[in-house]
Each structure stands twice: as C-alpha cells, then as structure tokens.
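Re: the request from the purification team.
They wanted to know what the chain is likely to look like in 3D before they choose a buffer screen. I agreed to run a prediction and write the result into the notebook, where they can find it.
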Amino acid sequence: MKYMIFGLRNLQRNYRRSIVTAMSIAFGFAAAALFAGYTQIVYKGLSEQAIYGELLGHLTIAKRGHATEGRLHPEQYLFNQNEIEKISAVVNANLSDTYIAPRLFLNGIISNGRASTIFIAEGIDPHDMQILRGPRNRMSGGLEEGKPTAVTLAVGLAEILGLKDRSYADLMLSTVHNQTNALDVVISDMFSTGNAGTNDKFMYLPLKLAQTLYDADSQADRLTLLGQHRELNDADRAMLEAELKRAGFDVEIDTWQELSAFYRQVNAMFDMIFGFLLVIVLSIVVMSITNAMGMSVVERTKEIGTLRAIGMKRMGVIRLFVTEALLMVIVGCALGLAMTMLVRLGVNAADINYQPPNATEKVPLFIGTDISRMIMAAIMLSILSVAAALVPVRRAAQQPVIDSLGHA
C-alpha cells in the first residue's frame, strides 16, 4: 500500500509529464478498443449473413468426397430418402432441438425467351427455408409454399434478363444422368445476396422442383443442421461424426465457418489489421513510458540515493518506479475506456452508412464493445510498461549510494 501512496505522490509531483504519458496510453488504448469493437460488429454481421442469409445453418452433412468429386460423379454423392431419414434419426437422438433441411445444388442456364445466362441455385423446401432464415425470415427472397414452380432470383440476375415479379423464365440443365432437362418457372420474389460475386447468378427454388429438374427424386446432396436454441459447435460435430460412423455412414460434417470463404477471408484480414494496429499502439506506449521513467530516474537520482541510504533495498526502489508505471497505465486505460465509450456513442448515434468491398448494399457503421480484446490490450500495456520502466530503474538502483547522492 505504501508503494501505491508514494507512486501517486510522485506522479502528482510531475503532473504535466504524467498527464502527457497517460494521454498517450489513453489514445492508444481507445484506438485499439474502437477497432476491436468495430470488427466485433463486422464479425457478427458476417456470421449472421452466413448462417441465416446464405442458409448455411450451423453444420452441413455430406457424403465424404462430395466437395471434390461430387461434380464429376454426382449420382454417387446423393442421399436417398432412406438415408436422409436414418441420418435425421441419429441427429435427433443426439442433438435435440436441431432442425434438419435437405438441400440440392443445381447449375444451368436461365432464359427469358430472348437472352440466356448461367445460374447457380439451391433447391430447398419453402418451409425449411423459413426456419433456416431465422431472424431474417421477414426479409425478401423467400419461397412461397403451395407454388411448386415459383422461384426467387438474386436482384442482379433478374436485372440481366429483365425479369420482374410474376415473370416467366426457362431453366435448362443437365440431370444427374447427364441428360438435358428444361422447365418453365415463375419469378415469385427477388433478393440481394449481399455479395457482388453471386448477386448476378443465384436463385432459390423449391426442393421438389430441383429434384424434378435434376432427375433425383426424393434425393439431396447435403443436409443442413440448425440449432434452434444454441449454436452447434465443433464438439457437436465430433460427436455427430462418431455417431454417424457407428451407424454405418461415411460422411463429412462442415461448420458454417468452413463453408463461408468470405467470412474466413474477412476475419483473417481484420485480425491481421488489429494485430498490426496493436503493435503500433504498444510501440508508442512503450516509448512514452520509457521516456517518462528515464527522465524521472535522472531527476530523482539523489532521491534514490537517499532512499538507499536510509535502508531501502534495490528491489524496493524498483518496485516504487514499477508501481508508478502501472498507475500511469491504469489511469491511461481508464481515460481510454471513457474516450472509447464516448466515441462509440457518437458514432452509433450518427447513423453513418458505407458500402464494404464486394458488397451490393450499404451497411450501417456500428461500434461494439469487445471486452476480451480490451482486457488483452490492457494486460499487454501493463506488461510492456513494467518492462519499459525496468530498464532505467534497474540501472539507477544498482548505482552506488555515494554516486547517487553526489549526482548533479
């Protein structure tokens, strides 16, 4: 306790230097905390887009090798109705409150009667789509139950062909048996995928319509799992893989993170930027602490000699200056936290919108509160500040008492 009191008094004695050093820590902490809060909101938005917007759910079950060989030999990697029912029984027995949705991927050519372009599509039951969309169910782009030939197109694809609601289009593709199949469909709705790479070619169609087009009656190429009360994780995947293997199924289970390449790329990019920013902040703080402690040690050399002369040991001198450095970090982080909250409130209230790279629509700029990264930044600042203070202090503490007392 006495070191804390002495440390506070010494900081007050050189209050101008202490304020400047604490403010440099505060600005550095606030910069790292604000960027961490921004990335937290970005990650949350991307995860919701992947899970509910792209309908990836939490886990996806497919036959082993489907991702690499499924396009070359599709008939070997489809689940039939009996397999779907057995896998569903295993899932329901081990993961309660988990919704299971069969899916079927298609690609081919869509035409308005005058022009044609390629499309990629997901076949999914309209009711399953409503469940998988979760909190996004009220957004546009859903399939209509009771309309077996109604499809929903991405906005960019509809614009290319000049299609509107209730317009008719022709779909043509190769079936699972490498035969050509075609069918007329009606456009029931349009939506934005949120990704410029898919917004000009994507569509959803009812699963039964997809099975008819693909000549794969009651079959699906994968099963999407969505935990309705909690997110299914890697532990659930490992357990489910073991249970399905015990039941005789050779399958692979992917998480939504593994299936969403865009999420992984953005996550890795922002993590790298945060690391780079944190290194810059820590470097500035270390230089500020080193400079402040170095000047304080030089100015107080006689004081150090006096303290040593009246019985304080070298370790006591070191503890005194280290306490001062920690107090400056605590004050700086507290000021930085206050600055972070004020800036966060201002930005969130300003209703700022921007369009991210490769996105089709503007998104609001929000800053969250990433507690874990804020704590990590504060701990790293404390450790490096102590290390920065030790360099000049140890040298002064080891100096002979006579030399310290005679310092001019």
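For the purification team: The longest strand covers residues 98-111.
Please add any questions underneath this entry.
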